[in-house]
Design a protein that fits this description.
Blueprint (H helix, E strand, L loop, with lengths): L13 E3 L3 E3 L18 E3 L7 E2 L12 E3 L7 E2 L12 E3 L21 E3 L10 H4 L7 E3 L21 E3 L5 E2 L5 H9 L11 E3 L6 E3 L17 H44 L7
Parallel strand pairs: 2-3, 3-5, 4-6, 5-7, 7-8, 8-9, 9-10, 11-12
Antiparallel strand pairs: 1-2, 12-13
Length: 275
């Protein structure tokens, strides 16, 4: 039950002065209702929260720390964290997350530390993280990531610690953004020297740091905006020109065949018998 003398303490949780709400290990199937506006830390680890619906933490706008470890979480709605603009620490580690919707963390502009370790993430889209200007630590270890999507880390200018071990990285063109980022930012990922990737079709392991830019020279580069403009302008023109050429060639072949048939008919026409 709620702690005596502490207002708005959810049932089945223990509350302490200073805004700590401890609901750890209570087999809770959902986020407790009626969270106090004064809550600063909410511990919901080791429960049975299989999903986080929209507005799951309404009323907890002053929350600074949220612990959701080991809940068997499979689904987080894109608006689950929309009321947590002050949140600084979010722990979603050791759950069953396979994907995250675009905009999931966009409201968390004050976030400093985010842990997604120990989930089943095979791909993490840049839109899911969004721009987190104050994020210092990002934990992605022990997932199923074979590469990081281009631009995933672009919105994290303050990143000082990036944890990536325990993922099945695949040596290939898709790994280029991560390898390039690790070379430009060696400090945030001190474990980069120990990260290995598997060569497709082989059982050979290679260090990620062993791949220079030249190793990806065969990979196709995305077109620059100027090049895209040229493609957009010349694409239809090229198509129409090709179509006109095909029509002209078809007409020419038809004309040639007609002339040939006329010539053959003249050769085969029986001559008029003489008088």
């Amino acid at each position: 039950s709620g702690a005596p003398g502490i207002p708005d303490c959810p049932e089945a949780c223990a509350c302490a002065p200073g805004g700590l709400v401890n609901c750890s290990g209570r087999s809770l199937p959902a986020v407790p209702e009626g969270l106090s506006r004064c809550v600063r830390a909410l511990l919901l680890d080791h429960n049975r929260l299989r999903a986080l619906p929209p507005g799951a933490f309404v009323g907890a706008g002053t929350l600074l720390r949220l612990d959701l470890r080991e809940n068997g979480l499979r689904w987080v709605h894109a608006r689950a964290f929309w009321s947590l603009g002050a949140l600084q620490q979010l722990d979603l580690s050791d759950n069953l997350l396979e994907a995250l919707a675009p905009g999931t963390f966009s409201p968390l502009r004050a976030l400093r530390a985010l842990s997604l370790a120990g989930n089943r993430l095979a791909r993490l889209e840049p839109a899911a993280l969004g721009a987190l200007p104050l994020l210092h630590a990002l934990s992605l270890q022990d997932n199923e990531l074979s590469a990081l999507a281009p631009g995933l880390l672009a919105g994290l200018p303050s990143l000082h610690a990036l944890h990536l071990r325990g993922n099945p990285w695949t040596c290939g063109c898709a790994l280029r953004p991560l390898c390039s980022w690790l070379r430009r930012h060696p400090r945030p990922a001190p474990e980069a020297e120990t990260l290995l990737c598997v060569l497709p079709g082989r059982q050979t392991l290679s260090p990620l740091t062993a791949f220079p830019d030249a190793a990806f020279s065969h990979c196709s580069q995305p077109l620059a905006p100027r090049d895209l403009a040229v493609v957009y302008v010349l694409g239809p023109v090229s198509f129409l020109a090709s179509l006109a050429a095909c029509l002209a060639l078809g007409c020419l072949l038809t004309a040639c065949r007609a002339r040939r048939c006329t010539a053959l008919s003249r050769l085969r026409r029986p001559r008029d018998p003489g008088p």
